[in-house]
């Protein structure tokens, strides 16, 4: 009966530890004692043909969990999917093959594609701890990935996910190397490209650290959590879609790495490229336009950095068979007026509807990107053709049809609580800090509260007088409104206002 | 009343997450909603003048924690020390200064002492996440720390802790670069040096991944959890002591880094040296002998690696004013007969008591190390003098006096459950795997169960017959005995037995 000794019934801890599986066990439980498990031990749990490796948190009190069961975090529960009363079998995990490969990379060895594939496979099977993953991300950061390795990592990540197929003919895609609030060109670009008769099955992400992702903004106007079959129906009918990529598991490896990369926030062209291009390839696209906003508070901060990133993007795209157009754009200030899901949706709709107050910068950026896509598909004067499709109402018409196909259009609503933030002195606005203004929108509740965010009322170059509103904060509760306002008033550098000489 | 909004009463989660502070909050609590906290967000919690930065785990069910309180893991609770009913104030932490320094190191910059000191300070204040620490450890691994940086890191770690002072005259210390089961020379070396009239205030560690640390073995024979005042009294009376260093906070930075280094297990001479020498300097010693066992299953696996490590140890020790003697020793097999706290204590006592069955290898190793210490203190023929002190009973007498001064001697006891593991075939033993035999001892319960472990009954070079006992497993419960035995019988490579040609 030796085997029986290392079993415990599994219960649900109802604790969200993000994607990191955690198991909670009481210090007095027989499995901990027999196996010598302590806090943070990596523990293998098997149940019904599935297994997961989790980190152990040890319950020391007599409170919510006794020694007669083991409790799984949400991620561990999702990985094992036990039924009521199922027993888990506990053991020490074998050292994953990836561990020695990560070690080799740390020591400066070059890895090839099969080795990256092993690391990705072990990461996806939760065989690597967060520390292992942090070591991998660190070892690949800076200039530590060669172009060959970037290509190998991209392929390994691409092959770890599902790939979509769209038949003959060009399949378009676009991507923005983030960091610019309000830069919500995607719905407009998709509408124009689809109106031109092209195929653009666009998958987008939700915000992770920003006040809104394209999926968050689009969701204000139409459902985005479509499965592959529903997405395919929309694209077959309308040529394009704007859906949330998270449900499609196109690059599940990226979902795992990004959880580690975001908080560490190391600049790493190699990892950025592998992340972007593996997803584009998995989405089945073969022509991609990439927007790289450059500015002191954007993700890419100099023309030189943009040039280096572009060169490696091109080299990697060529290797995996993607046709690439890169647009290096102005990233010195937010785009449009709204920051936050509903506020950005309003800007998008104004551009599509050609209203007099439509934000010109958003419109022009979308036209340039759409023009590049049209040119990659055989048009000669892409931007001109894009402008015609927008101005004629064809893009608006196509966008509404896409929304209807995705489940029905909804008009974005204004937030119930609004308050202006005023200029503290006379002068000319010389800069807006992208990161700080994004922070205000997040404190106001974006993106969880879709109507929360920031409405810009003055832009760089504008002369303002003391007391004149610079922006409005929108919130769904008075508490969040006050909180965002306090932060905005305490930060003097959101808008730089200088006295003209 | 804005400030009030970000407060919640603090309760104790009674969950051990090792030294990593974790806060548990319900997804519906107003603080999570207002601040936009999600799972794994880094959260600053202030309470009564203290603060800690913890990782957030989000409670999603209606079980043990509702939205009206925040629960702290043991480490977070210990850092904040709230009283019953105290409110915690929650906010987003500022980015620690160390983050940009770690980033610089990742990108290949050389750091100097003040920069390492900032990293150590932020780590000790729990301002760095485990991911940050893993990135730092990774960036310093392999050959990534220069000798200058090793010296700088050593000094930064030393200055982050308390230092002991022992007045005039030489203060001795010893250290073994681990990995060799049963290599428990310290009690013997201390007894000999103290019997020679020298000062050797030895602090030792408990096992982290091994079946016993020196503190675990010593604790079988005498109390070891002495505070600085009690330790000083023992040393003043007897010249030496063998106490647990964990209570003295000599290198608290090391305690934090080691938690990350152990699971990653990257070879890093720089970090190893900083860890060892910062503690020796903080303990107030100025002459240190270091034992480096070399063998295929020891920590240091080749003579070349030992030579490189020795060179850098010497350079760093010279800079921080430590006199160093290095002994590169045979690390091909376990030392003595016993593996596990009580079993090793028995070996130590046999050597001190000069019984006929005393393990000769342990005796000789202790004499060499003690001899080196005596020579560093002015003796000419150190080993000869050490032999006299041991053979005359002076060392035994001094050891018993030290035990009495630490709180009283206790004779190690045998475990109640014992079972032999037999040779599977005739042949000659050509090797013992240090790691596997240590694993058996740990599965039997060592070091938590002091009497558990392994008693070796045959050594390399011995001819054995099928069925002859190779070793005995000792355990305190029949379950653990069976568990260790099953593992031992399944592993064919613990003892390599070859047919002689």
TrEMBL record, chains A, B:
Entry similarity comment: Belongs to the thymidine/pyrimidine-nucleoside phosphorylase family. Type 2 subfamily.
Alphabetized Pfam families for the sequence: Glycos_trans_3N (PF02885), Glycos_transf_3 (PF00591)
Name by which UniProt lists this protein: Putative thymidine phosphorylase
Species, as recorded: Leisingera aquaemixtae
Class of this enzyme: transferase
PROSITE patterns: THYMID_PHOSPHORYLASE (PS00647)
Organism lineage string: Bacteria, Pseudomonadati, Pseudomonadota, Alphaproteobacteria, Rhodobacterales
UniProt cross-references to InterPro entries, sorted A to Z: Glycosyl_Trfase_fam3, Glycosyl_Trfase_fam3_N_dom, Glycosyl_Trfase_fam3_N_dom_sf, Nuc_phospho_transferase, PYNP-like_C_sf, PYNP_C, Pyrmidine_PPase_CS, Thym_Pase_Put
Keywords carried by this UniProt record: Glycosyltransferase, Plasmid, Transferase
Catalytic activity entry: thymidine + phosphate = 2-deoxy-alpha-D-ribose 1-phosphate + thymine
Domain of life, per lineage: Bacteria
């Amino acid at each position: 009966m030796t085997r029986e000794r290392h079993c415990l019934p599994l219960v649900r801890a109802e604790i969200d530890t993000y994607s990191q599986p955690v198991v909670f066990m009481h210090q007095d439980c027989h499995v901990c004692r027999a196996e010598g498990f302590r806090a943070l031990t990596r523990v293998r749990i098997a149940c019904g043909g599935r297994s997961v490796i989790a980190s152990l948190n040890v319950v020391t009190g007599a409170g919510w969990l006794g020694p007669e069961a083991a409790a799984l975090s949400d991620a561990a529960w999702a990985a094992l999917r036990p039924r009521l009363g199922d027993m888990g079998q506990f053991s020490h995990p074998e050292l994953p093959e990836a561990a020695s490969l990560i070690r080799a990379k740390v020591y400066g060895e070059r890895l090839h594609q099969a080795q990256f594939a092993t690391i990705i496979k072990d990461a996806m099977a939760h065989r690597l701890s967060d520390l292992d993953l942090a070591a991998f991300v660190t070892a690949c950061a800076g200039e530590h990935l060669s172009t060959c390795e970037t290509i190998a990592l991209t392929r390994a990540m691409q092959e770890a996910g599902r790939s979509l197929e769209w038949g003959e003919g060009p399949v378009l895609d676009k991507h923005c190397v983030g960091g610019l609030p309000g830069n919500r060109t995607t719905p407009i670009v998709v509408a124009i490209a689809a109106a031109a008769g092209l195929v653009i099955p666009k998958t987008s992400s939700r915000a992770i650290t920003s006040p809104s992702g394209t999926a968050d903004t689009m969701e204000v106007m139409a459902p985005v959590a479509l499965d592959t079959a529903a997405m395919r129906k929309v694209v077959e009918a309308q040529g394009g879609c704007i859906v949330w990529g998270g449900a499609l598991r196109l690059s599940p490896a990226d979902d795992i790495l990004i959880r580690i990369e975001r908080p560490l926030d190391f600049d790493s062209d190699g990892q950025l490229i592998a992340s972007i291009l593996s997803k584009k390839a998995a989405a089945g696209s073969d022509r991609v336009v990439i927007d790289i906003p450059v500015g002191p508070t954007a993700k890419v901060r100099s023309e030189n950095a943009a040039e280096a990133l572009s060169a490696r993007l091109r080299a990697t795209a060529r290797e995996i068979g993607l046709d690439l157009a890169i647009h290096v754009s102005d990233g010195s200030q937010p785009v449009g007026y709204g920051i936050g899901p509903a506020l950005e949706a309003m800007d998008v709709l104004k551009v599509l509807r050609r209203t007099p107050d439509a934000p010109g910068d958003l419109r022009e950026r979308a036209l340039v990107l759409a023009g590049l896509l049209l040119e990659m598909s055989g048009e000669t004067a892409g931007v001109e053709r894009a402008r015609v499709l927008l101005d004629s109402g064809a893009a608006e018409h196509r966008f509404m049809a896409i929304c209807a196909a995705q489940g029905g259009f909804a008009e974005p609503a204004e937030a119930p609580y609004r308050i202006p933030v005023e200029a503290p002195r006379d002068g000319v606005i010389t800069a807006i800090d992208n990161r700080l203004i994004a922070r205000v929108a997040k404190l106001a509740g974006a993106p969880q509260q879709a109507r929360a965010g920031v409405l810009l009322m003055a832009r760089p170059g504008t002369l303002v007088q003391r007391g004149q509103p610079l922006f409005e904060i929108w919130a769904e509760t008075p508490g969040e409104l006050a909180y965002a306002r306090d932060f905005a008033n305490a930060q003097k550098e959101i808008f730089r206002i200088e006295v003209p000489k």
